[in-house]
From TrEMBL:
The keyword Manganese does not apply. It comes from the Bacteria. It comes from Arthrobacter russicus. The keyword Transmembrane helix does not apply. This is Hydrolase of the HAD superfamily. CDD domains: HAD_sEH-N_like (cd02603). GO terms for molecular function: hydrolase activity. Keywords: Hydrolase. It holds the Pfam family Hydrolase.
Amino acid sequence: MSTRANWYLFDYGMVISEAPTEQDWAALSEAAGLPLTNPDGPYWQYRVDYDAGRIGVAEYWQRVVGREISDGLREELHALDLRAWSNLNSDTLDVLEAIDSSGVKMALLSNMPTEMADFFQHSSVWAKYFSRLFFSGHLGLVKPEPEIYQHVLQELGASGDQVVFIDDRQENLDAAAKLGIRTVLHHPGVELASELGL
C-alpha cells in the first residue's frame, strides 16, 4: 500500500488496544456475579446501545447484571471495564510514533461509550498522537453506519482516497471502502508497519 495519505484513521479496540485478558474477564464476571465471556451474552448484547450513547454507564451495567445495582458496584464494573480495554499493543504504539514523526496527521474513530471515551481521551498515553478523536458515544453513531464515516470525512476536510483506515472488523472496513476510503484489516499476526509501508 502506498503511504501517501493525508490522514491515517485508526480504530481503538483490537488495534491500539489488545483483547481483554482471561484475568480481565474473570474479574468482570466475578463482580457482575455472572459469566461475561460469552459473545452472545449480556456484556455484548447491550454494547451497541452503550457504544452509541443511547444508554449510559448505569443503565448498561444494570441491563448486563439484570437487576438494580448500587453506585459502588457500578463504579467497580466500570473501572474493571476500563482496565480490560487498557492493554495496549506496543507494536501499534511504535507505528503511531513513526507516523507522528513523519508529519502525517492521524485521527481515531472508535465505537466507544461516552464515559469510557471521556476517560481515555484525557488520561491515555496514545491520545496525544491524534489530531482528532471521534467516538461513537459522542456522535450517536456507530460503525459500520455510513453516516459515521461521512461525518469523519467532513470534519477532516478530506476525500475518501486521502484517508487510510485501520480496523479489526471487516464489516467496518467494507462500509468505509464504499466511500472510497482506503482500508487495512488489522488482526493478531499482521505486521501493521509493513501493511502501511512504513
